[in-house]
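Reviewer 2 asked us to include a model.

Predict the structure of this chain.
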Amino acid sequence: MNNEECSFDELLQKNRDLESENKKLEKELHKTREKLISSEKFKSAFLANMSHAVRTPMNAIIGFSELIGMEGISDQKKLEFTRIINEKGHQLLALIDDIIEISKLESGKLELNYSQINLDDFLNEVFAATLQKKLKSGKELVELILEKNPLEEYGSISTDPGRLQQILINLLAFSLRNTSKGTVKFGYNIKDAKVVEFFVQDTGIGLIQDDIKHLFDYFWQFEDITHQRLSGIGLGLTISKNLIEAFGGKILVSSELNKGIEFYFTLPIDKPGRSKKQENLIDLVSTDQSRLEPIWKDKVILVVEDDEVNYQFIEAVLEKSQVQMLHAENGDQALELCKTINKIDLILMDIKLPEKNGYEITREIKEFRKDIPIIAQTAFSIMEVKDKCLSSGCEDVISKPLEIESFMQKINKYLSPH
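Predicted model (structure tokens):
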């Protein structure tokens, strides 16, 4: 009888244990289901926002392109429509770049390339780039301020300057977009020999506390009590947060509605050194908007480009310079032209070519024509391919889509050396 009672008790306990396991399993299945539903909702929201973010500038680009071709449109309106098309094109390009960056960060393919930089000189460059954006975006009522660190003994740090600039530019762009008047201020403080703290502060519309936790979510936009949305789709901030964490740092946000936002982020530093002599900020900022229009009628440029439209664009850009142009649609044609024509002053080399790519063709050309400077043209991120271009023999790199003023300055550097 005792044995039977014992067996019954054991069976009862096993049944209880089984019921407990079943309840745990049900809870886990419920959590998994909730996660899947949440994930699907997130994906749907992501794609909806993506569609909106792409279609909005495309609407302007296609619409104003059609208007320019219509009869009766004044020259003044054509200029304004062209400006809008250009602005929206850059907006679309920035979105594409951000999506690629997110993909690299999530796949773990991001690489940090460290070098020693002088912080004040570096921030002068960030200031100059941001000031130009401020002027172009019509933010006359917003004052941009760079607050330098007074301590000179930690003026130099080891970091990835390209990625650090990306972080700061993203944060500053966000603050500028959402500040109609007042100030956008940035700078740094040396916490100790191992950590530097950067900050970006603005006097914009700010955030309510519940919204701060969503600030770095993909494509998350905010709405305050007056139903005014913060400008921007959020990818720049997401990228900045991920980059900061890749450095081994942290980012914090402080904000109040209608009182602006303050970003603080820390980065570890390696080898602090002494600061170099400071440069005047205004020396780094060019307010001259005139476009470079040189004459190169005695020069010959070989354009290696398989896309006919891209070649037509370069041809139109260089038309006034009176430069002589040769066109190669692939690597073999480029090699043949370099072998048979002695007078070639510069090569514009597309990287993505059929059969042999631009790296291979550059290396082959440099074997017998080391005298010809080669500028690589790439639709890939310069940050990704610059070292590969230079190691293959290119003297310089320029990214697509080409910005005319920068493109002309780059060519002038090699055709009209000082």
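The longest strand covers residues 182-190. The radius of gyration is 28 Å. We have added this to the supplementary material.
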